[in-house]
Amino acid sequence: MAVPGLTNVRDSLGQRLFGLVAGPEGPANRARIHDTPGERWFAEDRPIRRVHGDASMFVGGLRALLLQSLHPLAMAGVAEHSDYRGDPWGRLQRTSTFLAVTTFGPAVDAQRAVDKVRGIHRRVHGIAADGRPYEASDPHLLEWVHIAEIDSFLAAHQRYGAAPLDQEGRDGYVADTARVAEALGVIDPPRTESELAQRLSDFRPELHSTPAARDAARYLLLTPPLPMVARPAYGVVAATSVAMLPQWARWPLRLPYLPPVEATAVRVAGRTLVGGIRWALNRT
Fold first, then answer.
1. Residue 1 falls within a domain, yes or no?
2. pTM of the full predicted structure?
3. Which residues pair with 106 in a beta bridge?
């Protein structure tokens, strides 16, 4: 039985959350993505649909940004070419739309979205602070961005998802995402969970702290452009995202490592928050 007034609160909260993530064009994009007939890259029973359609993506996405920042060349591209400070919500909305189109949308739209991103990547290049040149279209850098993102989404889903995947499902998710990664220019992306872990380990010698990475972490975790009323909830998202990072990724970003607190209070708060987001968005 519906509680009087609760449905309206739920709908209002869901619409605000959806608007924040999807932007003003969100309802139109959602209708086009889900209602347009045609072949899709992924069938309805594929693991990628379960993971990318879950509220755990809220914490997985922030973890991915923190982890990606540890590669100096990838971070240089973000710092010099991204508008994550000037228009952080616009960047989030474009990313969420890309994920939605490639995961759920018609194949022709998915390919069009990939082509657009590849066009943007071709224009992103420069010299990092350490003197090395970088190009966003470099398959090696594309692989780092991909594996950091997929590792984060999968970790968040396993800890906070409504229906965590078994081993077959986790391998299936990594294999599904390889389809998108190859379309973006990644060469031979990982296709199983064990391969994903190995690739992440292989990249570790290239990862280290930079002023740009630490600055991005402070901005993302401590000074997000949010009204004061939303700060406590975002604080939980931030703490939950940090708690999912491996220990070796904390120190370069000057982030705390508090296992007892993370295993109890942070995990409970994270489950409560993600559950609340899921509750609200299921009505949108």
1. no
2. 0.91
3. 40
